[in-house]
């Protein structure tokens, strides 16, 4: 049984809480948030609530894991506090807003002998897992060009409107497109060059839109689109190689595969995206807890999370300097 202390009970904190509630080997021993439970729409009687991490640690008999679902700019402070307390850590993506912070967090966890798991959850979405499997099975031959889209509304219901502050959230690229950067790097390895354009820095404080081109060391080119300016959320991807292509659109929940100009099999292969299925956040947390319990290696290392931030920051830099940015791997 793992005793988990949840820090931050906003949108993602509640998502994690719902996942833990379904796990027989996890007990959420307390919740830390600077807002009152009633504001968070949580029942005060169900959990022990604390306003600070220190207060929770002083009060609770046992904490094995600290799960941090705080705004990104607070990740470093709380991950390092948790590491120094000797607790294993689960922390939402992105690991941090700067590479210096990410390095310091990774080193502090290593120095204190605790595990650090960053919630790069796209690795647990069935359609993305399927895409990776298709590439690895050689379904499209040698991959050439990839297009991904992740479009939605600006996240308006956050505490203190922290997403609107570029210094706190890193904007649409660091906050949202980090999912695609991590996923694409998972599929294709290291990125060599990043070029990006966006609305970032213009007066549309609560709207952001970005187009990022990644050139991988393997020669694959990915065109990544992300938006905080759309109505309603959807994701798409399209993978093309020298033998065929496949595409996915969350609005139809299917992957369509075309090999050598022939639609393969039934044509449309439905991916288990039904709301009745396990949530990817649940799968992710089951995986992290399993790694903690068994010592198994996670499919996401802290270094993977660092690399995703490196790509995002290179994209933000490319926008600033209006030039491609080269990464040293
Ligand atoms: N994996 C995903 O799909 C996904 C989706 C959305 C957000 N996120 C990430 O999750 C993290 C949290 O985002 P969110 O949308 O839940 O934000 P949120 O604003 O909804 O929640 C943050 C919570 O932290 C609390 N808080 C703020 N400062 C605190 C402090 N010092 N001590 C204790 N509590 C404090 C706030 O009261 C709030 O309840 C971010 O890093 C974000 O990028 C991930």
Structural class label: alpha/beta
- Tally of separate helices: 9
- Helix/strand order: EHEEHEHEHEHEHHEEEEEEEHHE
Coarse morphology: globular
Helix content: 25-40%
* Termini gap: 39 Å
Mean pLDDT: 91
Indicate the proportion of strand residues.
Answer: 25-35%
* Overall strand count: 15
- Based on CA atoms alone, the radius of gyration comes out at 20 Å
Strand order, sheet with most strands: 14-13-12-11-7-10-9-8-15
The small-molecule ligands in this entry are: nicotinamide-adenine-dinucleotide
Largest sheet: 9 strands, mixed
Low-confidence stretches: 265-273
Descriptive account of the structure:
It is a single chain. This protein has nine helices and 15 strands. It has 329 residues and is of the alpha/beta class. The strands form two sheets. The protein has a nine-stranded mixed sheet. Strands 3-2-1-4-5-6 form a six-stranded parallel sheet, with helices on both faces. Helix 7 packs across helix 9. It is globular, with a radius of gyration of 20 Å. The model is unreliable at 265-273 (pLDDT under 50). A hairpin with a 4-residue loop joins strand 12 (244-249) and strand 13 (254-259). The structure holds nicotinamide-adenine-dinucleotide (NAD). Nicotinamide-adenine-dinucleotide (NAD) binds next to helix 1.
């Amino acid at each position: 049984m793992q005793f988990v202390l949840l820090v931050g009970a906003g949108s993602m904190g509640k998502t994690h809480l719902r996942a833990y509630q379904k796990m027989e080997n996890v007990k959420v021993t307390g919740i830390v948030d600077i807002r009152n439970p009633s504001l968070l729409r949580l029942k005060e009687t169900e959990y022990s609530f604390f306003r600070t991490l220190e207060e929770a640690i002083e009060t609770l008999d046992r904490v094995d894991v600290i799960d941090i679902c705080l705004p990104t700019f607070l990740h470093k402070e709380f991950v390092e506090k948790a590491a120094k307390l000797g607790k294993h850590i689960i922390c939402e993506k992105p690991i941090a807003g700067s590479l210096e912070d990410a390095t310091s967090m990774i080193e502090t966890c290593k120095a204190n002998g605790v595990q650090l798991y960053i919630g790069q959850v796209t690795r647990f979405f069935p359609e993305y897992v399927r895409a990776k499997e298709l590439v690895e099975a050689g379904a499209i031959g040698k991959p050439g060009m990839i297009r991904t889209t992740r479009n939605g509304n600006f996240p308006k219901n956050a505490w203190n409107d922290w997403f609107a502050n570029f210094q706190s959230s890193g904007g649409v690229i660091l906050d949202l497109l980090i999912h695609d950067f991590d996923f694409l790097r998972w599929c294709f390895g290291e990125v060599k060059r990043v070029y990006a354009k966006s609305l970032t820095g213009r007066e549309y404080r609560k709207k952001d839109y970005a187009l990022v081109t990644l050139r991988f060391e393997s020669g694959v080119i990915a065109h990544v689109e992300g938006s905080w300016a759309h109505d309603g959320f959807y994701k798409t991807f399209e993978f093309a190689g020298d033998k065929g292509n496949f595409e996915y659109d969350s609005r139809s929940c299917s992957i369509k595969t075309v090999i050598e100009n022939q639609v393969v099999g039934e044509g449309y292969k439905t991916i288990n995206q039904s709301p009745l299925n396990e949530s990817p956040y649940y799968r992710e947390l089951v995986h992290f807890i399993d790694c903690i319990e068994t010592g198994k290696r996670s499919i996401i290392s802290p270094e993977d999370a660092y690399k995703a931030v490196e790509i995002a920051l290179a994209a933000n830099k490319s926008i600033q300097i209006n030039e491609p940015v080269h990464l040293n791997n």
